[in-house]
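The protein record passed on below.

***
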Amino acid sequence: MPQSSKQAKKSTRLFYATDVHGSERTFRKFLNAGKFYEASVLVMGGDIIGKMTIPIIKEGNGYRATLQGTVQHLTTEEELKKLQERIGTLGFYYKIMEGDEFRAIQADKASVDALFHDLARQRLTSWIELADTRLKGTGIKCYITGGNDDYPDVLTALQGNADGSVVACESKIVSIDGTHSMMSIGASTPTPWKTPREIPDEELGKLIDGLAAQVSDMSRCIFNLHDPPVDSTLDTCPELDWNTDPPAPIVRAGQQVMYGAGSHSVRQAIEKYQPMMGLHGHIHEATGVVKIGKTLCVNPGSEYGEGILRGLLANLANGKVESYQLTSG
């Protein structure tokens, strides 16, 4: 049979998830998604570290821990193991310690912070090692960027893995398959939570423009921007009162006020550059897919605390998103 004169399409299957916030179960599902969905490209879009440390205190012949406001007393190693697994699924960290050590750390905020950062870095390092082990020889590459909740010193764990299956893609243009490129920025605009990597919207816009200037073909580029475009439905969430501690939802006429919490600069950049696809997160409850001009923009949402992996599966070919599907499992 004579070969067609037309060049065969080279298709790439990409799986995207975001906002796992330290959840062991959710991240392991993410790594398994490559094999399960037959995807050759995995993208983790930011907010990868957890939110708190749970002390597990030795007492007598057992242990004591406070989780989600409930004090638990553990008397067997099996109970301890189940608690550790539950803490890991929630995305929290834990440390087993004597009462004296707990009291000393508790009395010193710097020690509390140092412990959290150490445990977060250890978990991220273990995830990178797990990814390299599971993905070795599969041809699957895993691209990871931080988000606004991720401390820069913790993200340094990603930098020493140049020859492995994990690719640190923060603030870079990377080729994901020789045909399509991806531009990644993990910072967000200010939030009432005052997270580690928040910047003014105007500054975010300058970062986007600076990277976009390095993109050779926008029609084959993915914008992996943690912050979603404003007023796109991918950013809809309850409006919060920034003056309360913790920030509280604003209620009018008995109803929570909803608004678009995304970035004006992200939206303007998508409208201006019209990349092939926009991958976003940040607002966990705003799951959806929208078109902004020619650009397909997606926020798969997040239910990390339940150990549920929400994601996007997309087939890419010659600068086109041929098909896509939101996933949950």
The mean pLDDT is 95. The chain has seven helices and 22 strands.
